[in-house]
């Protein structure tokens, strides 16, 4: 197509220009952070009260709100996702502000959009991209794992050096001011370097500089020398962070850029959360240990960065195929509804992890439960707003005869996702007729009660096993969480670590559920929990006990997450709410008993409680083997289908009208 070639030539010229200025804009745009950072010691020295400093921060936040009004959405993202009209408005405003002509812009945009849509048709995902796409293909998986390592170590070293700058000596206000001012060259020096040196080399080089500076702090015996090396390390880390903020978005394709950056940012919070606690680590084990840790982490990161692809003078990829730079092949139904269901359930739990990890910091800072209730109420208030935008389950609405409500919900979802609703009403009526026919064969006629959970043999077996497993899971989760101080170490630090280990317990099952069945995965994590509990009994050193307790906490949290997916998939739609609700009630037995495990340990010893935990987990592992596997199977809608599932029978075809049509 000659017009597409013409468009490609134009875009190619734009790309070479944008590649040049993109790094400049990112770097220079961050100078505001440096100026704000450098003003903190002056304000602190002048005001001497954090409340007055909070007022100054609020003024800056108010000004930032006005800035959002003038900020454009990315035209590249708008075009890639089919919002041509919005992209045209943004580009015309940009051309007008820069005094450029806008002749034939509409035609060029339409041709470019058609070209991008044609290239995206080669991908089976059809824009339904999730966080799993970050690790599906080899190159993206490598990029994501390296980024997920680099983000937290950068945050750890950055905040570790920034918050604990007084550990290196000198006047606190002066050293804090200098640590802020070194951010200025860290934003200016990369600007010319990015034009001549590749992103990858620059990224790895400044990480290596940071690591070597941290190692150099260890033997230095003069205060000024220690401070100087710390400031060089802060400069190197800040510079590599800035380079990373450029190379990371260039590595991810447009269809996954927000997802990739979002996940990297979330994982990076682990380092930011851990940074302030490096001061306690330095107080207990010496500054040399902390500097050695920083140096090892940064040097390893520098080595890993060399395995990243270079993005200098290259066009930013728009699709996964372009990011992989090879033909894109995928199996049919790779992004199945089963996978997406597990992904959403597990990723939604990251909010719990972040809230959990914030508790020890708030407790250490506020020192009063009454003040801690205030941020809790603030979170609840935001959650009430979120409920307004949440849809009811269309599956539940259809199954219970609320066809009009289901139609409204599904049409709204189709509209939000830009999908066609052609023949939608006919398909919905056919599906409703099928469900009515299936449910008419059951004598209960939708008048289901909690007794239906134990009336039929298959459901009775599933229900009793689920009730036992939920009690054990809740008992061990809260028993370990509430009583972390029983294992030794600093209460605040161990509580923080017990919250942080929940992040991998949200992400690791996310990947494993794609290849391992729910039943096997739950048994595996429950077995790890039991072994960890038994291993605590002979342990004598505090750090070993704490490590084993954290492994047990990780495993039991993973069990909880797998059970949260496994349980609803076992129960039929007509009984799912009652089944999951009853299981939750029984789980409360375990959570109610958990705080009293501390008294039991004080009276009979920690070994007795750990033996109890281990024995209960072994019982749960054995019982779960009698549950049917749900991986790759359709969720049952009726009691009859659930009974067939317990006997591992495939459901009848019934004209192939099932919920997976939608």
Topology:
Blueprint: H1 2-29, H2 31-47, H3 50-69, H4 75-80, H5 84-97, H6 105-120, H7 138-163, H8 172-181, H9 183-188, H10 190-196, H11 199-217, H12 223-251, H13 254-274, H14 278-285, H15 287-305, H16 320-324, H17 337-347, H18 350-366, H19 369-388, H20 394-399, H21 403-416, H22 424-440, H23 457-482, H24 491-500, H25 502-512, H26 518-536, H27 542-570, H28 576-593, H29 597-604, H30 606-624, H31 639-646
Transmembrane segments: 25-46, 52-70, 146-166, 172-190, 202-219, 285-308, 344-365, 371-389, 462-480, 492-513, 520-537, 543-566, 606-627
Pfam families: Sugar_tr
Keywords: Membrane, Transmembrane, Transmembrane helix
């Amino acid at each position: 197509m000659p017009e597409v070639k013409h468009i490609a030539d134009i875009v190619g010229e734009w790309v070479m220009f944008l590649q040049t200025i993109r790094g400049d804009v990112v770097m220079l745009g961050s100078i505001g952070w440096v100026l704000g950072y450098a003003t903190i010691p002056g304000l602190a020295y002048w005001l001497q009260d954090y409340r007055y400093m909070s007022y100054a921060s609020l003024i800056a936040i108010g000004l930032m709100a006005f800035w959002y009004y003038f900020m454009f959405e990315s035209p590249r993202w708008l075009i890639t996702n089919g919002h041509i009209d919005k992209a045209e408005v943004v580009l015309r405003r940009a051309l007008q502000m820069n005094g450029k002509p806008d002749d034939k812009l509409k035609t060029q945009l339409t041709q470019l959009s058609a070209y991008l849509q044609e290239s995206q048709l080669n991908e089976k995902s059809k824009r339904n991209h999730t966080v799993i796409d970050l690790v599906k293909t080899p190159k993206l998986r490598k990029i994501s794992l390296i980024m997920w390592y680099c983000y937290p170590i950068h945050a750890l070293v950055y905040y570790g050096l920034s918050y604990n700058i007084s550990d290196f000596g000198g006047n606190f206000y002066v050293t804090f001011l200098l640590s802020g001012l070194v951010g200025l060259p860290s934003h200016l020096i990369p600007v010319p370097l990015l034009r001549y040196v590749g992103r990858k080399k620059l990224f790895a080089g400044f990480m290596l500089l940071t690591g070597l500076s941290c190692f150099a702090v260890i033997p230095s015996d003069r205060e000024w020398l220690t401070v100087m090396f710390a400031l060089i390390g802060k400069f190197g880390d800040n510079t590599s962070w800035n380079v990373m903020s450029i190379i990371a978005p260039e590595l991810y394709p447009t269809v996954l850029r927000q997802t990739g950056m979002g996940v990297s940012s979330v994982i990076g919070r682990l380092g930011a959360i851990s940074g302030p606690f490096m001061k306690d680590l330095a107080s207990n084990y010496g500054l040399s240990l902390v500097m050695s840790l920083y140096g090892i982490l940064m040097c390893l990161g520098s080595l890993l960065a060399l395995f990243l692809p270079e993005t200098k003078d290259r066009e930013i990829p728009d699709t996964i195929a372009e990011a992989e730079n090879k033909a894109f092949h995928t199996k049919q139904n790779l992004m199945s509804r089963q996978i997406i269901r597990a992904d959403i359930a597990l990723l939604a739990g990251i909010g719990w992890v972040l809230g959990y990890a914030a508790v020890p910091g708030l407790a250490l800072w506020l020192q009063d439960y009454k003040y801690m209730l205030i941020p809790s109420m603030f979170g609840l208030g935001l959650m009430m707003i979120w409920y307004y935008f949440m849809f009811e389950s269309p599956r539940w609405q259809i199954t219970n005869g609320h066809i009009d409500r289901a139609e409204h919900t599904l049409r709204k979802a189709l509209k939000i996702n830009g999908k066609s609703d052609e023949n939608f009403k006919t398909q919905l009526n056919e599906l409703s007729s099928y469900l009515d026919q299936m449910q008419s064969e059951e004598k209960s006629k939708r008048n289901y009660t909690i007794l239906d959970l134990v009336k039929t043999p298959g459901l009775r077996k599933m229900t009793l096993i689920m009730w036992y497993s939920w009690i054990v899971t809740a008992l061990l989760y809260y028993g370990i969480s509430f009583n972390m101080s029983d294992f030794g170490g600093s209460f605040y630090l161990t509580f923080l670590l017990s919250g942080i280990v929940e992040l991998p317990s949200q992400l690791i099952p996310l990947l494993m559920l794609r290849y391992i069945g729910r039943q096997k995965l739950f048994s595996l994590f429950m077995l790890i929990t039991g072994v960890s509990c038994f291993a605590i009994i002979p342990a004598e050193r505090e750090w070993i006990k704490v490590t084993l307790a954290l492994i047990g906490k990780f495993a039991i949290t993973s069990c909880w997450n797998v059970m949260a997916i496994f349980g609803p998939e076992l129960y039929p739609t007509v009984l799912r709410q009652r089944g999951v609700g009853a299981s939750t009630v029984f789980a409360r037995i375990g959570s109610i008993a958990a705080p009293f495990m501390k008294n039991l340990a004080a009276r009979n010893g920690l070994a007795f409680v750990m033996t109890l935990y281990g024995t209960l987990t072994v019982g749960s592992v054995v019982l779960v083997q009698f549950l049917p596997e749900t991986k790759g199977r359709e969720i049952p809608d009726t009691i009859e289908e659930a009974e067939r599932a317990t006997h591992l029978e495939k459901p009848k075809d019934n004209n192939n009208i099932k919920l997976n049509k939608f």
